[in-house]
Amino acid sequence: MKFVSRHFDIYFPDAALDLGGIPPATGWLTFTYVAWTIALSIVRTRYIKEALSNDMDPRLVIVPFVQMVPNRVFYNPLSLVFSNLVDIEPWKFLLNFFNLLIGGSFIERFWQSPRELAKFVLILGTITNLIVVLITIILSMFSSAIRLDLPLDGNYTILVGFPIIYKQLFPETTIFETKNLPFISKNFRFKLLPIFTLLVLSFVQLLWFHHFSQLLSIWITFFTCYFYLRFYQRLPASMAEDAEFEVVGDASETFQLIYFFPDLVKPVLEPIFDYLYQKFIVDWRIATPFRVYDIEQANILAQKRGAKPVEGSEAEERRKKLALQVLEERLLDNKNTESSTPQNDV
């Protein structure tokens, strides 16, 4: 689907707009999100009027059962879960609603697993919320500017995490294209959406809301969602190139963390990311290191989704390593076959 104007062409993937029969997890999450957000809004609106009449800070009007408040989390631990399904900002509610309804439907169908979508939104969101609360409490010990009685927005998984999935599923698909504008002629593709979302949300928090914990939540959500998709997510074996193996994570070269960031900062970030991978994945084994075979299989799947293959010396070196590995395996197989073949004495 395409919307054409004088200066912009806007594209929508046809598969993503197919809402014929909303999948179960998407329907349940969307209904719960809308119902709880409306209920929270009604309750807060009622008591905010009383707070204003008593010269009370309206931000202190909270429902700790569903809102994540650092100094009350230990008394209401389920708020870490329920805060994934409520919002108090109208602009964020609208973005999350359409993102969940349209994007969630497409993602759930692609993953072939309602449980996987629910896990991504709720479990990853809860883990992120717990990390943010703990860090906020620790930082409050060093700075009185960080308040523990104000609620934190615990629902960034959809807004920040879904763009990572969009980049993964159709990286080279154009979202919009500018034209007939001086000095501006650009195709904005889904592969740019995660970093664009991060920068916009970060600037909003820094320049408008001035909320450090919310800024922290945005970036922790990004890294948590990426780490899960990169190393831990398990999808049905039917999605693998080799049906004997299920898909675990995404080892493709185009899904490396470095390719989420602009070229300008890659020379600085690349050695840092390489060190972190070596330390946490290879040395400490908090996730299974990728084999050459895993990377090749993931590259094939990524290219089927439209990702362009990575070029350069690193890619060539990996292909040479794969060729040597395959050759060694074949020589070993031939040697074993010859040794098992009976010999006739003359």
TrEMBL record:
GO biological process: retrograde vesicle-mediated transport, Golgi to endoplasmic reticulum
Primary site of residence: membrane
This protein's GO CC annotations: Golgi apparatus; membrane
Keyword Methyltransferase found: no
SMART domains for this protein: DUF1751
Pfam family, one: DUF1751
Keyword terms of this UniProt record: Membrane, Transmembrane, Transmembrane helix
Keyword Membrane in record: yes
Superkingdom to which the source organism belongs: Eukaryota
Membrane protein topology class: Multi-pass membrane protein
Protein location: Membrane
Membrane-crossing segments per the record: 28-48, 120-142, 154-170, 190-209, 215-232
Protein name from the UniProt record: KLLA0C12111p
Organism: Kluyveromyces lactis (strain ATCC 8585 / CBS 2359 / DSM 70799 / NBRC 1267 / NRRL Y-1140 / WM37) (Yeast)
